[in-house]
Amino acid sequence: MNKQTIVADTIDMVKEKLNNEGSGHDWYHIERVWKMASKLAAKEQANSYIVELAALLHDLIDDKLVSSKDEAVQEVEYWLEGAGVSSSDSERIMDIIQTISFKGGNGRKLTTLEAQIVQDADRLDAIGAIGIARCFTYAGSKGDVIFNPELSVRESMTEKEYREGPSSAVHHFYEKLLKLKDLMNTETAKQIAEERHAFMEDFLIQFFNEWEG
């Protein structure tokens, strides 16, 4: 099976799986990450095939979306094998999607340009106008309020602690989103992140002005 067909089949599968997801990790998030990752791969001269498949599959093992990460990893591995992806390419893809998350990978340094690109594309979708919209969508999906001034910012926490502990949408800017600009890997992503970061800062200024009345 040729690579274009494998990518097209993967798109269909992921779209069906995440189409009605309501926390901001839906198909349209995947589509944006996939398109951005493809652009970054072209700019940075990376392996576009590996980048595209990893970008398309990166949220299918996210423990915010699955009840068992181990089972989800197995399902993705079975999918890649059934789709005709070589074992060496499958290993590279699985390594990427298990190490790129903000809290994932146990602090492992990304060792490939392809992993850096997928991580950058995913993080770019978490900032700027889209990032703001996704932040409030995710907060609402887990029952968090828009803002609670009595809460303190949690600087260091596991993903499980974030999901289960008290927070607010606005607190999440300080716990994660405003940190992402300085965590970009590629020069192209760093440039894009500057504008999106500035937009979030402007939003927060306006938000607090309105909050204080």
TrEMBL record:
One Pfam entry name: HD
Domain HD: 26-127
InterPro entries for this protein: HD/PDEase_dom, HD_domain
Family annotation (CDD domains): HDc (cd00077)
Source organism superkingdom: Bacteria
SUPFAM superfamilies, sorted: HD-domain/PDEase-like
Xref: PANTHER family: HD_PDEASE DOMAIN-CONTAINING PROTEIN, SUPERFAMILY HYDROLASE, PUTATIVE (AFU_ORTHOLOGUE AFUA_1G03035)-RELATED
Protein name per Swiss-Prot or TrEMBL: HD domain-containing protein
